[in-house]
Amino acid sequence: MAHLEVDLVAADRKVWSGEASMVSAPAADGDIGILPGHAPVLATLRAGTVRITPTGGEVRQVRIDSGFLSVDGDRVTVVVDSVDDGSATTTAR
After folding, report:
1. Is residue 38 part of a domain?
2. CA atoms of 62 and 85, how far apart (whole Å)
3. Is residue 10 part of a domain?
4. Model confidence, pTM
5. What is the per-residue pLDDT across 31-70, written as a single tens digit (0 to 9) for each?
């Protein structure tokens, strides 16, 4: 089964990295959902919640203030100014 390689990075740290089946994020002009095979895109993000569905595990939800999302092939990179994820250590692989 196809999957996405996802990196979620804040200005001060890597928040999450791993394989996922879906990513959704609050783009400036509406929510965007990314599945494997998505066309390349670069989107500006507004404040809201980024949701990552890992290939094995529970959905991860992280509140962000702003940033951007890039999709190239099956690689998704989310770069944000700051996150509120409720924990101090959140990097997983």
Report:
1. yes
2. 5
3. yes
4. 0.88
5. 999 999 999 999 999 999 999 999 988 999 999 999 999 9
